[in-house]
Amino acid sequence: CGECYRNFNSQNELNMHMQVHRPRNVACPVCGEQRFRSGANAVQHVESGFCKGCLGKDNARQQIYNFAASQRSMGQYMTERPLLTYGGSASGPVPDMPYCCQECNKSFRQLSQLLQHQDQKHGNRRMLSYY
């Protein structure tokens, strides 16, 4: 590592390690707390159910799905186009694997998994438009 001079066995290990050197300048899309190194980390915070703005994992999963469905840029990453209400939010339950990588067609249960995959495998750190 060029920052802390640790050695790693593979490029993948080094890439994963380099995340610790990123600035913590990404905010949570729900509570606004700015302490995350990536969009994936911010979304994981919400999905965990510990975000002050979304209490409980099930509610958080639904909120993240609704948020993603309302973002025009996220349409290409949704496995199914959810029906939107007049206010622009998704209606109905969250599908089991609602997110999909457009580059390799891999499906994901959680948005944070897709964001992490996009960052680590395809170098796309700016999928969501909120940050």
Describe, in plain words, how this protein is organized in 3D:
It is a single chain. By secondary structure, the chain is mainly alpha-helical. Helix content is 32%, strand content 7%. The chain has a two-stranded antiparallel sheet. The protein has a two-stranded antiparallel sheet with strand order 3-4. The two termini are 27 Å apart. The model has no long low-confidence stretch (mean pLDDT 82).
Summarize the structure.
By secondary structure, the chain is mainly α.
As a percent range, the share of strand residues is 5-15%
Distance between the termini: 27 Å
Mean pLDDT: 82
Radius of gyration, CA atoms, in whole angstroms: 16 Å
Give the secondary structure arrangement, pairings included.
Elements lengths: L10 H7 L8 E2 L6 E3 L2 H9 L9 H14 L28 E2 L6 E2 L2 H12 L9
Antiparallel strand pairs: 1-2, 3-4
Helix pairs in contact: 2-4
Features:
131 residues; mainly alpha; globular
